[in-house]
């Protein structure tokens, strides 16, 4: 008897479900209406594809993305799942052939656009069939509060009434609590049947760099991913065309993609990207790609996105196969001014919402201290409690050195107070710089004691400082005009004249960004064999007229190049290789593998044992690091071996001690810290008082006098001392 688990393995070739997939599938099979919110790359499609093979009748999937339907159907057919789509891209003959196949009961999954579903022709067809599951993909389009509202989606509820026996499923990758509530109410769902997966995409390395020479910076990133797929987002069509032309001249395989292109050119460029004929697409931020390409290894934002929601969705197109991918945002405050110009053309609530979105993404881009994942996950109502993710620039690098900015901070806070807490940052900066513009004179602010006391910094430096004071909790910002007011923390700081530490920009607005290191992929594989397997995949894909990843994913090829399978049984152990794919493509790939292994005297490796060790290493790396340190390795040696920073090594050593293990003496650690004896004592006293679980309270307690790397070292020394006396 078929079960969700057996179909997962035998049809789709996966050993285990991703988080919440099994729960969602069981809920649908119990015929309960279901809302599932899962991040891009989180495995939403299997949540209705597996039930479709277990239910007697037809599964109808409503999707707004025509190109994505074609993509999904090609992949399902490769797995042996009978599927078709109906939309405007088909010729009249193809359309009729697909309708006839549905009518004859030869199809398990039917993909339709919402406007197609609403036509009398399709409703008449479906009325003659048993529809068991109605799936609404991109369900945020139902909500007027969603970022991509489509009126025709609101009419789907009327279609649903025509099929009262069909269970209904709504799926989306991005939905705030307000949007989720709107979806449930519109579709008349019970609140209890809602499943929200974690939005944390652990395989994405997230980085923000100051935009200084964007063409050079983009080229440097691309050069690190030779022959790999990537997407570059730009603000305007002109920038897309200019950058695509520049990269083409530099010898890169690249095409532009934006709404200004002819439909035929846009389709041709997208198809070339999907089929690996072109490696890089340069696209406008405003235009959705609608692709399901799993092997995008990097996403670059050449310009600032307009919101965190849009940014999250765009970086979500990277690494959908679960392998490491790199997401880079090039940030300059000039981009903020550009977006503000367009916001000023809006009015009322639309303008207010756009300002809130922009402020949120600016705070995110300018935060050089906190984990990048926290604000992204918080936006969707998910808390991230880990102290470090070890896979973003802020967590995986030495912290930017903090400087004492007490005097300028006090000047700014005092000026906000003297201006009666009724103005935004730009006006406060004008006062500090001694401006006598019309607004300053109209309010009599040239008479304030703070007028002209801030000429040691330029306007960009003052604005940067203001945004830090906001993120540090010294200021509140409210209303359409971004009015600033002082928090209790600021009043207390002014009263006690407490020191304030932060990051000071250089004149002209540049911040010296710290260097970062990416995490390396966990699985070691033979690069030469992987390249040969990719060539074979491309050859077979071109012959079949499908994208290469429809044959096998990059993950499958990497596992083949790591474990060297040389039999059908071993091939079936590879991720994403189901029974149908093994029969259809297995012989050709095994021939390549066997020949290569014989020529290079390579033997097959058992995947089961490797997989267990792989996961163990990923989850228990701290044990390996701790034992290596006790065996005599220095922190520097461990940094080199694992290609991580000192902070990452120290985090692993901390976990090692917290797990109940002892470390050798801390002589190597003492040589790394710059803290004075007095500072070390102060830190130890703070650990006595506040514990060692989190460093932020210790950092605040010491008024930022020690950076986080020093605090990590001192925490280790403190834990070693505690062990000695326990």
Describe, in plain words, how this protein is organized in 3D.
With 726 residues, this protein is an alpha/beta fold. The protein has five domains: 193 residues, P-loop containing nucleotide triphosphate hydrolases (Rossmann fold, 3-Layer(aba) Sandwich), CATH 3.40.50.300; 176 residues, 3-Layer(aba) Sandwich (Rossmann fold); 92 residues, Arc Repressor Mutant, subunit A (Orthogonal Bundle); 80 residues, Orthogonal Bundle (DNA polymerase, domain 1), CATH 1.10.150.80; 105 residues, Arc Repressor Mutant, subunit A (Orthogonal Bundle). The chain contains 35 helices and 17 strands. The strands form four sheets. A seven-stranded parallel sheet has the order 3-4-2-5-6-1-7, with helices on both faces. Strands 8-13-12-9-11-10 form a six-stranded parallel sheet, sandwiched between helices. The protein has a two-stranded antiparallel ribbon with strand order 14-17.
